[in-house]
Amino acid sequence: MRNPVLQQRGRVNALQRYRSPDDPELQDAQRDLRAEGLAAYIAKTVDAAPPLTAAQVDRLSLLLRGGELR
After folding, report:
1. Angle between helices 24-48 and 4-18 (to 10 degrees)
2. Contact 34, 28 (CB under 8 A)
3. Residue-range domain boundaries for the chain
């Protein structure tokens, strides 16, 4: 299985060769690369941590959805 971060990085690099920085497809690819990097980081962190409680999962989900913590 290919690493999704490396695959997306390759896509961004290829687009950067021929597209201007404000090209919508390049911007989408850059956004997708950031999302893949974040997903990899979250997976690594969760795998190394003890199991989360339901309340902790809810709190972290709220952060990812852009909500405010109280």
Report:
1. 160
2. no
3. 4-64
Kindly list the distances between the CA atom of residue 51 and the CA atoms of 11, 44, 46, 55, 65, in Å, as whole numbers in the listed order: 35, 13, 8, 12, 21
**9 in Cβ contact with 40 (< 8 Å):** no
- How does pLDDT run across 23-66, given as a tens digit for each residue? 999 999 999 999 999 999 999 999 999 999 999 999 989 888 88
Report the C-alpha gap between 44 and 23 in whole angstroms. 32
CB 14 within 8 A of CB 25: no
